[in-house]
Each structure stands twice: as structure tokens, then as C-alpha cells.
Amino acid sequence: MSRFVSFEKDATSKAAAAVKAQVDLDGMDEKIVGLLEAYLDEQLANNVVDEEANLMLLKFYAIYPVKLEQQQTRVAQVLAKGLMALPSNYFLGATYMVSEALRKHKDIAALLHAGEVLQSCLFPEFWTLDLAFAKKIPGFEEAVRTFIVSTIAKSHSIVAKEFVKAQLNLADKDVEKLVSEHGWTAKDSTYIVKPNADNEMRPKKFKEDIEFSDILDTIQVLSR
């Protein structure tokens, strides 16, 4: 998963600081489009994601007359970063801001479909998709695999090695290296998943909703 940053809270980079300065001065000036694009380039290079800034860029594409060809690459980059940020709602939010014209573009259509597949937990199918554009982005596949591991961990306390291998599309030694980083341990043909709030058995709680009048009626019947 990509590390989250915010130009509003930690504008430590030159590009982030430029965006913040322009937002503070005039957040609706058209020149902010170029600043947001430069900031997106920085996010791609440093494997970080600023949800607010990227969604702002998509919003301005709908406001200002930017060439469709220019938008195509940038929108695809924003969507790819969204997949890298799963399970954040950032990807879902970005999809609502993609125009019908852009949805016909090959890379954008592929990324939108990939998002549906990932969020449906159809992980083996994901690895069969043509995502050449996204795979060029530093850390893309690693971030997706981190999402897959975290998703499996939410529903399993013990899981078959072959199952995990199929979900991650990796060789055995690479699977073991990755899951060990998440605290999993190997045992025979399975992995023991590190306990978490989602994969632990919880005691069932029963709440009895009995009115006093019901108890009184029962006592009267038994007293006859």
C-alpha cells in the first residue's frame, strides 16, 4: 500500500508546497492544474499518495478545458494510485469523477475493471488482466499484493499455502517472504495468520428480551 500524505498537513516537498500556496492564494485559479499534475508526478516517483490533491485534479479537469489526450494519462495515473491505496475509498471516489469519454480509453477502462475485480476479491483473475500501464508505476504490484494479504488476513486465521500462492501470483519463496513480513508463520502446508480483530473468534452475546408480564403469566400457570 502507498504511504498517504497531504499537501495541507505535511507539505514538505516543493511540489506539495506549491499546491498549498496556490490553494491558499486562490484555489480556483486555472494554474493549479499544472501544479497538481507536477505534484502527481512526485507522488508517482516517491510511492506516496495524496487523495485530496488527486481528486482535486480530476475535479478541475471537469471545470477547465484541458485536452482529452492530456487527461487520459493523468486520469489513468490517478486511478492506478487508487488501486495502490486500497482498501481506501479513494479509488471509488475517483471513479465517480471519470467522464464517459475517458472511460472508453483502453488504460482507463482496464483500471476501472481491475478495481471491480480487486474489490470483489477475485485475485487470481486480477493477475490475468492487461495492466501494462499500471505496472510501470513504481510499487504498483507490491501495493496490490499488500492489499491481498491484508484482505486474506481479515477472514482467515489459517490458510492453505497453495491458496495464498494463487492469490498472490508469486513463487513459493516469494510468497513466504511476503507473508512473513506480515507476521504469518508456515506450518506444514498452511500459513498461520497473525491474529487480528477480524479473524479472531468472538464469543456470542445473547440478549434476552423478556417482558415481566410474560414471566408473571408463566409463574401463574406453574402455580395452578
Short description:
The protein is mostly helical.
List the helices and strands and how they pair.
Elements: E1 3-4, H1 14-26, H2 32-46, E2 48-49, H3 51-63, H4 68-84, H5 90-95, H6 100-103, H7 106-119, H8 123-126, H9 132-135, H10 140-155, E3 158-160, H11 161-168, H12 172-181, E4 185-187, E5 190-192, H13 212-222
Parallel strand pairs: 1-2
Antiparallel strand pairs: 3-5, 4-5
Subcellular location: Cytoplasm
Family: Belongs to the eIF-3 subunit K family.
Organism: Achlya hypogyna (Oomycete)
Structure write-up:
- The mean pLDDT is 89.
- Helix content is 60%, strand content 6%.
- The chain has 13 helices and 5 strands.
- The radius of gyration is 24 Å and the shape is elongated.
- It has 2 domains: 12-138, ARM repeat, domain 1 (Serine Threonine Protein Phosphatase 5, Tetratricopeptide repeat, Alpha Horseshoe), CATH 1.25.40; 145-202.
- The protein has 224 residues and is mainly alpha-helical.
- It has helices spanning 14-26, 32-46, 51-63, 68-84, 90-95, 100-103, 106-119, 123-126, 132-135, 140-155, 161-168, 172-181, 212-222, and strands spanning 3-4, 48-49, 158-160, 185-187, 190-192.
- Helix 1 packs antiparallel against helix 2 (32-46), helix 3 (51-63) packs antiparallel against helix 4 and helix 4 packs across helix 10 (140-155).
- The relative contact order is 0.08.
- It has a 3-stranded antiparallel β-sheet with strand order 3-5-4.
- A hairpin with a 2-residue loop joins strand 4 and strand 5 (190-192).
